Amino acid sequence: MGKFPVFDAEISKVKVCRRCKGRNSINNEKCRRCGYKFLRSKNKVVKRKK
Ligand SMILES: [Zn+2]
Fold first, then answer.
1. d(CA 14, ligand 1 centre) in Å
2. pLDDT value of position 6
3. 19 CB contacts (<8 Å, ≥6 apart)?
4. CB 36 within 8 A of CB 18
5. 48 Cα–ligand 1 center, Å
6. CATH architecture observed for domain 5-41
7. Are 23 and 14 in contact (CB under 8 A)?
């Protein structure tokens, strides 16, 4: 969870292409720009040191 819950929800709906870094819908199985199959979900995992 970041500072803005709405923004987090928006980010979790997006997948990012590993090749061209294009943003795709979470429903897309491959990139709509370059057709690359491997998309990662754009979730921000913030590791904080205590
Ligand atoms: Zn792509």
1. 13
2. 78
3. 31, 34, 36, 38
4. yes
5. 30
6. Single Sheet (2.20)
7. yes
Residue 12 CA to ligand 1 center (angstroms) comes to 18
49 C-alpha to center of ligand 1: Å?
A: 33
Domain chopping of the chain, boundaries: 5-41
Type and span of the H or E element at 8:
helix 5-11
Give the predicted TM-score (pTM) of the model. 0.60
Question: Residue 46: what pLDDT?
Answer: 66
Residue 9 CB coordination number (10 Å): 9
| Structure token digits, residue 6 | 């709405």
- Report how far apart, in Å, the C-alpha atoms of 47 and of each of 8, 16, 38, 40, 44 are: 16, 20, 24, 18, 9
